[in-house]
Amino acid sequence: MPEERTLDCRGLNPPMPVVKTKRSLSEMEQGVLTVIVDDEIVSRSVARAAERAGCTATAERDGTDFHVRIQKGEVAEPAESPQEAAAQPVVLVSGATLGRGDDALGAVLLKALLYALTQSPAPPKALILVNSAVRLAVEGSECLEFLRGLAGAGADVAVCATSLDHFGLADRLAVGRASSMDEIVEMLGSSPRTISL
Given 5, 18, 98, 117, which residue has the most CB atoms within 10 angstroms? Predict the structure, then answer.
């Protein structure tokens, strides 16, 4: 019989809302779980974790809180087959250059690689930008065109919120979405293929 549960995760730091959501979902056969959080990035992390578990999820703002409604059961279908998920890697980019040595050459190589990914018949499932790589996704970046092309082809461009804050770039994000570290760990852990640059 379908259940209806509410899980209040307000005031909890990441990754606890995702951990508690997964635990509650594992205890349910089918039904609706409403998770209440007080941070927009955390609400997206909870929704994505639920979707990766084969559930459907929607998030709505309610004042200063966010309510993530998760449907588990017969009406929920996985977003993709295991074969589709295996074909598309998650790409982790941790710097604004590719390789070690000459930074000018490394910047050219990374730009060429991003262009090549836009031309690939199977673009990555997700592109995760951390540390100085977040500069690729902000206003004025020479790589914006390629990142927008990847996002338009269906790649999830996840940009580390901690890195954006560290470099003072949070208000200049031009492509993708700010992502919490617990969500990044979840994305990396749930992918059968990860490429680290």
Answer: 18
